[in-house]
Amino acid sequence: MSTVSVPLRSEIPVEYTWDLASIFPTPADWEAQVAEIRQRLATARSYQGRLGDSADVLADWLDVYQGLMRDAQRVGMYAFLDYSTDTTNQTAAARTGQASTLTSEVQAAVAFAEPEMMALGFPTLRAWQTANPRLAIYGHYFDNLERMAPHVRSAEVEEVMGQVEDPFRTANATHGILTNSEMTFQPAHNAAGDSTFEVTHGSLGALLADADRKVRRTAWESYADAHLAFKSTMANTLATGIKQDVFKARPPVWLLAGSGARTCQYPPLGLSQPDRGLPPQPADLAPLLAVAAPRAGGGYPARV
Length: 304
Description:
The chain has helices at about 25-45, 55-85, 90-110, 115-120, 120-130, 140-150, 155-165, 165-170, 170-180, 205-210, 215-230, 230-250, 255, 280-290, and strands at about 1-5, 190, 195, 265, 270-275.
């Protein structure tokens, strides 16, 4: 009986693989860039409260911001491409986790900027853009910033939202590890019974288009059965992702209150919380959790 299998990455000619060296020559260069970006975060934070000083200061900030985001993207892309070729590679998985954490740190460090620019007023931003050649390229950015203004929170809230990005990726990462690293598929078979075909995420499309009906059927059954074996785990990761999205859409009320407010109300939930950012009491969490994962009849959601 013949077997059609998917080759390992090490068996593929190098000219058909990603050239990671074009991003960073070696893993050591990648690690050096990660450390260098972390050092630059202090410089980024030093601009907080100063963006309204002048058009030149704003232009300087945008140069710093663009450089940070560009280099953080390169760090993330290197890690992701390396990991995606072999999701069982623990070294590559560790780099992906480092890159995710770094991205969250960068987002938290620059979170003050957009609320601060909005506070300047868009007439001021556009006047500076016209007068300062260094800002000329940011016309579309300022237009988009104005469009997004109703959805941008205070600097404090935006910083917290940046900080939670890394842990909030866990549900999606868990799903990816399960389906890409740990889930195994039974081989598909042809009608003659003399050939088997390895079923993977990459080969499934071709197998489902095979002329042999039994190849198509057994490939799909193998793929579906492997997922159904982990249906409870996958449902939980989906539910967690939905709760995280709801949380991000409705930031906790004590973050929105501001340090000077004695009490604030979030009308859709009827929550109240005193100042100083104290954590909510368990009773305060009940309506938030009910909204995060509602079920018929209200109250706490049923276990998934």
